[in-house]
Amino acid sequence: MRAPIGNFGEARPAADCLDELCPPVAAAVRAWEGAVPPEDALYVDTDPDKADTAVLAEAYGPGILEASANCVVVAGRRGGATTLAACVVLSTTRLDVNGTVRRHLAARKASFAPMDTAVGETGMEYGGITPIGLPADWPLLIDPAVVDRPYLVIGSGRRRGKLIVTGKVLAGLPGATLLDGLAS
């Protein structure tokens, strides 16, 4: 089937592409539960050199920038404890790390997690981190504007390939919390 957005060419159900996904994402797709069927998550093959959002949008067509959501790993610190969380925001917005995220995590300080931490803790490649397959104990904070989108382009866990999902798929992920003010 053709991808519902962009110039990606063929789109296949993610459940049929488990070998193309990193292990944590493949495991999450295999164990899919929820109100939204797993067939609503599609996989499209992309050039790994074009994984970054702006380059992806330029390469794969109009509307991709507005239909992309980024999954950002954040580290909240209080005392000697660090809490890792994932935040999903539209790619055209900015994540409010020092305000909304910090307060939600009850942290004294919050910042983007270092790349080696994000990659090591998720088991995913930098530039492909996705909310599907994250560690179960992590908070998953989602900007409400994400949920209203009929199609979103998100990471697949690898730089090669993207997932196309609805906003409702993301809202139905385990541990997902819609958080007003997450992005501006």
Automatic annotation (TrEMBL):
Q: Cross-referenced Gene3D superfamilies, in alphabetical order?
A: YbaK/aminoacyl-tRNA synthetase-associated domain (3.90.960.10)
Q: Which residues form the YbaK/aminoacyl-tRNA synthetase-associated domain?
A: 49-170
Q: Which Pfam families match?
A: tRNA_edit
Q: What is the protein's name according to its record?
A: YbaK/aminoacyl-tRNA synthetase-associated domain-containing protein
Q: Which species does the entry assign this protein to? A: Streptomyces lycii
Q: Where is the organism placed in the taxonomic lineage, from the top?
A: Bacteria, Bacillati, Actinomycetota, Actinomycetes, Kitasatosporales
